[in-house]
Amino acid sequence: MLAETICSAVSAAGLGIAAITAYRRRFLAAARIAAYSLVPLGLVLTGAVEWVAGTAFSPTAWVGFGLLGGACLLFMTTRAVERRTGGSRKERKAAAAAARRDAVEPAASRASLGRSGPATTDPKAARPKTSGTDDDFSDIEAILKKHGI
Known about the structure:
By secondary structure, this protein is mainly alpha-helical. The protein is built from eight helices and no strands. It has helices at residues 2-23, 27-46, 48-56, 59-85, 89-102, 110-113, 123-126, 132-146. It is flat.
């Protein structure tokens, strides 16, 4: 009986605060406060408060909640260990084999090879450069030709 009275008082106080908030023209906040303040009253009217009060003082219920908590803790621990180790032994072997099969050695880019790179088959690249300005624009021309411009 005491829990129902307290829940009713909390709901009444919350509705009063919601009314004051609405008076200040903050209607969205007032509606949110009213929604929160109606929750305890709804719990009382559905009988949930009586059930919780009866369960709170039952040792059998506490043992049941303890077992449920232990089962959840055990489940979460095993999931964390499985995620950290990568699953079963078969799954780890399969993942390692796939990683070895898919591994590719990266090819060196032409810019990183510099002047000591392999000989090109392009006849324009084999010609010696005649002036410094041509050397500057040849890179740009190569880029434009590469993109079809």
